[in-house]
Amino acid sequence: MLIGPRSTLNTHTLVRKSTLGADCSVSPNTTIDSSCIFDEVRIGANCDLRECIIGRDVHIADGVKIGRGALIGNGVRIGKGAQIPDYARVGRERWRAEDDDEEEEDEEESEEEKSEPWCIVGVFANISSTREDPGQRFCRSSLASRRGGTSRRLG
Fold it and tell me: Fewest CB atoms within 10 A around its CB: which of 29, 87, 105, 143?
């Protein structure tokens, strides 16, 4: 177990075989097992994180359960009571195999888009896969909802 500088753990918090980065905060009655948590992560009360990777500047509200093998990208906000299934990927970057030669399109981002959380998983959300491709995940984007959109497809 490794806990970074200026990180705080509250009462009745269990951290086992995990790494927490700098400036992290874990609220009471939370279990973190065999996970890697990057810097500046806020984890609410009564959460359960098992064998997952949490990116930088992620905020996880109370009562969230994150399944085994889940990958939560940088800047994601997860709402109260959300359940992220095993091996889900939530965040900005599309995963590509190392041998994927497809050229990636570069997109310019405004300063507003860079400073705001990209993906927000809402209250009592249950991320699930689509029928067409079990690897695809959906979540609500704060930027899309302000611009009249409803969701962005991740994957």
Answer: 105
